[in-house]
Amino acid sequence: MRKDEYELSEFGNGENEIKEKFNPNSIVCDASSLISLTETGLLGALIMLKPMMKGKIMITEGVIDEAITHPIKQPQYAFSAIRIKRALKSGVFSVAKYRINTYDKILRITNNMFYTHRPFHLVNHGEAEMLAAALDNGVRFVLMDERTTRMLIESPLELKKHIENEFRVRININEGLFNEFKILTSDIKVIRSTEIVALAKQKNYFKKFGDMEKEAYKAALYALKFNGCSISFEEIEELARY
Fold this sequence. Notes:
By secondary structure, the chain is of the alpha/beta class. 51% of the residues lie in helices and 10% in strands.
């Protein structure tokens, strides 16, 4: 194992001890992003970028369950699960662990930060697990298409306004938890699957489409949007210009 990598070893009490560190430029992937890339035939874009990365492409055991173990038993989802499993077995992904205390802390903060007459639930276990893995592994990047958690990290006040408009309620902020989460995630950068594809395009991933390269690239961006990536039509048009 190189000095720029680390692993986590479990104590008997369920806690984990960090022995060494991953390169901070590694990326922790959410299940939804991997599924979107796979179902649109674009997982190869992520795989193509791996040799160019300074870090690793990381997934948690929860992502394995959500993207492989459960869907592989369902005929309508099995093919995507098989392709992700093949990538895992071939060494594309590294499995990341995290401390349960970090995971619990993220759920506690995010799901009590905004409230009306009661706390407003914002983050589910999958996103909390991904963030915990990134924080405990010293990793800066997370691959995530889901809007709420991304906005909570990047622009929480805009998220508050969006929720107020959508649900027609007034949202209060727990300032202590708000600031705690801001500090906790200050070094985290969220990347969407569309941005992975945009980077792959710069590395000539779409050259194989010949004179349809630009059309294929733009179509790929739209395909990801319609498979769950939170990106506006305006953002797609902006990405498609390059």
